[in-house]
Fold this protein.
Amino acid sequence: MINLGDLYVRYIDKLALECNISLKKSARKNEKINEILSAGIPEDKLRRVFEKYLDEQNKGKSKTISTAKRLKIVEDQFKYLITKIDDIEVKLANLGFTDSSINTREITDIKNVIKSKTQTGKSIAVDELLNIEGLNKYTKDMIYLAAMELVDEEIFDVSEGKSNNKIQGHIGRLIRR
C-alpha cells in the first residue's frame, strides 16, 4: 500500500488532477488523501502516478544545498577574492615603480631617516625631503613610497604645500603628527 502522506500538498493536488479527481482548495491534506483513495483508482495506476510525483518531489529536495555546503562555497569565494585583492595591491604598488631593487629594508631605513629629521608638529616640504642628507643614495620613487607608508601608518599628515616636487601629483608637504 502506498502512503500518499509522503507527498507535499502541491504534489497531491497534481496527482489528483492527473487522475481526474477534483479537490477542494481549502481541504486539508488528510481530506485530500482520503478523497483520492476513495475515488476507486486502480492500485497500479495510483502507484505509478504516486512514484512519479514522489520522484519529482525528491529531485526538488536534492537541489537544495545544505548550510555547510553553502558556507564552504562562500569561504572558497572569499579566499579567491582575497588572493585577487592581494594581486591588485601588488600591481598597484609596482605601478610607477620600475626599480625592481626596492626592498622593505631600504624603505624602513628611509622611513627612519625621515622620522628622525622631522619633529612632532613640524612639517617638511617634499623638496626638502629629497635633499635630506642620507637619502641622496635612494631614488625619488623609493623616498615617495616610504613617505606614503608613513602617511598610511598615520605618522604623517599631508597637504598640498609649495613644493616643486609633488608626491602623487598633489602632495607637497608632510606634517608630523
